[in-house]
Amino acid sequence: MRKPVLAKTSMDMSIEELAGRTDHRKLATWAADCAGRVLPYFEEQYPDDPRPRAAIEALRAWVKTGVFRMADVRKASLDAHAAARNAGEFTSARSAARAAGQAMATAHVARHALAAAIYAATAVRDATPSPGADAATLRERQWQYQHLIELAES
């Protein structure tokens, strides 16, 4: 049986509910943190491709400054997604780059943070050998949930 394209866990609904009550900029920080945790999966395979890292850095700059130029947000996000397409199908590198692209899109629409986190969990799943993949994915989602609680309360 082929695995689902995106990782699913028992934490998904709890994370979504908490995200719905969390400030936009805190969600952006969370999305950047989630994507940043899995960025090494991409950079280990494509060390000369700066696009996913640039997307995360651009999002962190938006969180700090509040300066929003749609053309910049769109370019950084789409560049990270282009890097994902170059990484091939169903790889941890691809999911990590997608996490970065979705994280950057959070500057425009807060709910993109959820997709960034799911892609990050998918990167973890795809980087982990089969017997431990589900447990590793759940641990990642538990970290994401705890981290979001901490950010939401700060």
User: What is the total tally of β strands?
Assistant: 0
- Give the integer mean of the pLDDT values: 95
Computed CA radius of gyration, to the nearest angstrom:
14 Å
Helix residue percentage = over 70%
Spatial separation of the terminal alpha carbons: 43 Å
Low-confidence stretches: none
Strand/helix succession: HHHHHHH
Shape: globular
Largest beta-sheet characterization: none
Whole-number total of structural domains: 1
Portion of residues in beta strands equals under 5%
**Class per helix and strand makeup:** mainly alpha
Q: How many helices in DSSP terms?
A: 7
How would you describe the overall organization of this protein?
Helix 2 runs antiparallel to helix 5, helix 3 runs antiparallel to helix 4 and helix 4 packs antiparallel against helix 5. The chain has one domain. It is globular. It contains seven helices and no strands. The longest helix has 24 residues. It has 154 residues and is mainly α.
Topology (elements, then pairings):
Blueprint: H1 12-20, H2 24-45, H3 51-65, H4 70-86, H5 92-105, H6 112-127, H7 130-153
Question: Could you list some keywords that capture this structure?
Answer:
154 residues, mainly alpha
Short note summarizing the structure:
With 154 residues, the chain is mainly α.
